[in-house]
Structures are given as C-alpha cells and as structure tokens.
Amino acid sequence: MFSPAAPGRGAPPAPAEHQLIVPPLNFAMIAPGIYRSGFPNPRSHPFLLKLGLRTIIYVFDGDCQPYHQEFIRSNSINYQHFRVAANKEPFEEMDHPLVAQILAEVLDTRNHPLLIHCNRGIRRVGCLVGCIRKLQGWAMTAIFDEYQHFSGTKIRISDQEFIEVFKHPVLINPKFGPAWLTDQPE
Amino acid sequence: MFSPAAPGRGAPPAPAEHQLIVPPLNFAMIAPGIYRSGFPNPRSHPFLLKLGLRTIIYVFDGDCQPYHQEFIRSNSINYQHFRVAANKEPFEEMDHPLVAQILAEVLDTRNHPLLIHCNRGIRRVGCLVGCIRKLQGWAMTAIFDEYQHFSGTKIRISDQEFIEVFKHPVLINPKFGPAWLTDQPE
User: Coiled-coil annotation: which residues (chains A, B) (predicted)?
Assistant: First the structure.
C-alpha cells in the first residue's frame, strides 16, 4: 500500500535517476494557479509540461525566442506577449494601464494554471507580483521582502517605488477572479 | 459585470484600506497545498486564516509560543510539532529518519492545505523544502537557488550538504500523494 518515494540503501531519490528536472530561472509559485519565472530554456520545458500550463504570459520589450514559441505552439498553450519596458530612474516607468491589463489576465482563473515570465524573473515579474500582493492587501514590508528574495543584492528602488505608487484599477470579472484574492478561504 | 479590484482616482487598492495583510516572515507557497514560513506572529494570524489551513507543522527543538497554540486550537487546525535540531558543522546533522517522517506528513494531501514553519523560515524549513525538491527530481542548482532566496547571504553549507546527501526513503501513500510529485499534470 505504501511505496517509498526515494529508495533506500544509498540510492538517490528515484525521479533524479530518470530525468533531471530543471525549473526555469527564479521559478516560484505565487499563489494557487499562478507561477513566476525568468525565460525558460529548453531544459526547463519538460518541467513546464508537468505543470499543465494553460497560459504563458511573457513581459519583455523584445521578441520571444523561436524555440520557446515552438514549444508553446506544439503544446497548445495560450500565449500572450506584453512589451513592457522596465522601470528606470529617474524618468522611465512601467506603463500603469498596461500593467493593469496584464494583471487582469493573470488574475483570471480561466487562464490558470498560468506562468508569467520576463527574462531573468527579477524586475518586470517582480513588479507584477508586487502589484498582485498589493491587491491582496499585503504590507509593504512583506511585498518588498518577496521582491528581494528574487533580486538579491540587485534591488532597484525604482521597482519598489513603482509597486508602492501603482493604483490603476484592475478590472477583474468577479465570476472568474481567484478565491484567494477575495475573503473566501482556499 | 466587471468590478475594479482597486479603485481609481488616487485611492489605494481596496483591501489595504480595510485590513493590512501581514504574512509570516519568509512566507511562500511551495507547491499546490503547501506553504512555508517562519514563526507566525499574531499579526499574521488573519492571513493564515484566509489560507484555510487544515494542518500546521512546526519544526524546531523548542516549545511553541502559547498565543500560537491558542490560535491553532481555537481554529481547529491539526497541529504537529517535530523537535528538529538544525545542521551544525562539523558534526551535528538533522535526523534523517525524522526528516523522512516529516516529509511523509507534508506530502500527504489529506493534511492539505498545510503550513510548515520553523522560527525564521530559513534553515530547517529550507532543508525540508530542499528534500521535497529532490523528491521532485529538481537539479541541485535550482534547489540551492531556492534555498538561497530565503537565506540571503546567510547560506549554510551544512544545510546544502544535508539536502544533497539526504536519501532516506519517504513513505508516501500513493492514494494520497500530491499529483505534482508524480507525472500527472496539475
């Protein structure tokens, strides 16, 4: 009835023997149905397949790599690319209405399970996740702490400032918004 | 039909006005049904309630704070306390059979949604999460990177070594193991 997930007697855990799982750079689960990462390389594609993704959202002001587009197409994953420039002190800031539009897609459960990624999984995605936490009502302390888990010492004050000042309305269809964004327990 | 999650015209997002959400230190979602953190303080209890936790597992070789025990009792949360000492170079190491026993509880979906926490959410929990990633077959690069997201510059080689050498069988009832640990997509 019970089976060991890892064989004993000196052998490494079973899955590692079969296939090495390589998640994309800075991969993490944000909340039920939503994952974040940097740009997936071909080695991380088997892992992404295991997530059963319905949607991949790419936020970067450049083109998507052809190998990744091919992966998305051949696995019938819904794909959206938003060309978002990063915050840059002192004058350039992510476009607030565009960020609100992306958040509305990310927070629509009809798109879940969903991966949102940029290139390194630090700045653009960090700002979007920060805005989601703000919608959840998180304290800025916790929001900045999470941002810094991924940025390490490369914190950008401009990103934190963007998260703090972001107030654009995010249109969420109440029928399809995630339960964890409202007061219902999961 | 559509309602704004955040009101426009200069007002901050709605939830922040009502109640400031304070997740516990180093809070994160590991995978569907499993959360990690440091020791929750009273301010983070409303947030934990929103997660609808069925189980809280505390791993630390000291007693649990009375206010937290009271919170767990009054909300009918299943509670397990495992007295685990941290890894300490050069001679002390977390107890392998005990860690395997904790992992079996964490990976039993009958206990989900579940929070596993230690005191700072870095070392003991970091090792347990590292072992879960190993059971998932993750590359050590990704496992150590995730550990370091929470440890920052306070990386302990003894923890990483523990994760790498851990091979004790983990008894998972196949009927109640999480789908993401097997090959089924979520």
Answer: none
As beta bridge partners, residue B36 has B28, B116
* B9 burial type by CB count under 10 A (0-12 exposed, 13-18 middle, 19+ buried): exposed
| Nearest of A23, A33, A40, A38 to residue A55 by alpha carbon | A33
Side chain identity, residue B46: P
Residue type, B51: L
Give the residue from A134, A80, A90, A142 showing the smallest Cα distance to A111.
A80
Give me the pLDDT at residue B13, please.
Answer: 46
- Report the distance separating Cα A126 and Cα B150, nearest Å: 16
Q: How far apart are CA A86 and CA B9, in angstroms?
A: 24
Closest CA to B138 of A39, A18, A166: A18
Q: How far apart are CA A138 and CA A141, in angstroms?
A: 8
ipTM of model: 0.84
**Unique residue bearing structure tokens 């940029």:** A118
Domains detected in chain A: 20-166 (3.90.190.10)
pLDDT by residue (tens digit) across B171-183?
999 999 999 986 6
Report the pLDDT averaged over residues A157-182: 93
Cβ–Cβ contact A97 with B under 8 A: no
Q: Which residues of chain A lie closer than 8 angstroms to B145, CB-CB? A: 26
On average, the pLDDT of chain A sits at 89
Instruction: Pull the structure tokens for residue B43.
Output: 């301010």
The answer for residues whose C-beta is within 8 angstroms of residue B17's C-beta and 6 or more apart is B11
User: Which residues in chain B have their CB less than 8 angstroms from residue A50's CB?
Assistant: 180, 183, 185-186
Residue B11: pLDDT above 50? no
Residues 6 or more apart from B15 whose CB is under 8 A from it?
Answer: A135, A136, A137, B21
CA atoms of A115 and A78, how far apart (whole Å): 10
Cα–Cα dist A119/A32, whole Å: 23
pLDDT tens-digit map of B61-100: 999 999 999 999 999 999 999 999 999 988 899 999 999 9
Mark which residues 101-160 of A lie under 8 Å from B by CB: 107, 113, 134-139, 141-142, 145-146, 149-150, 152
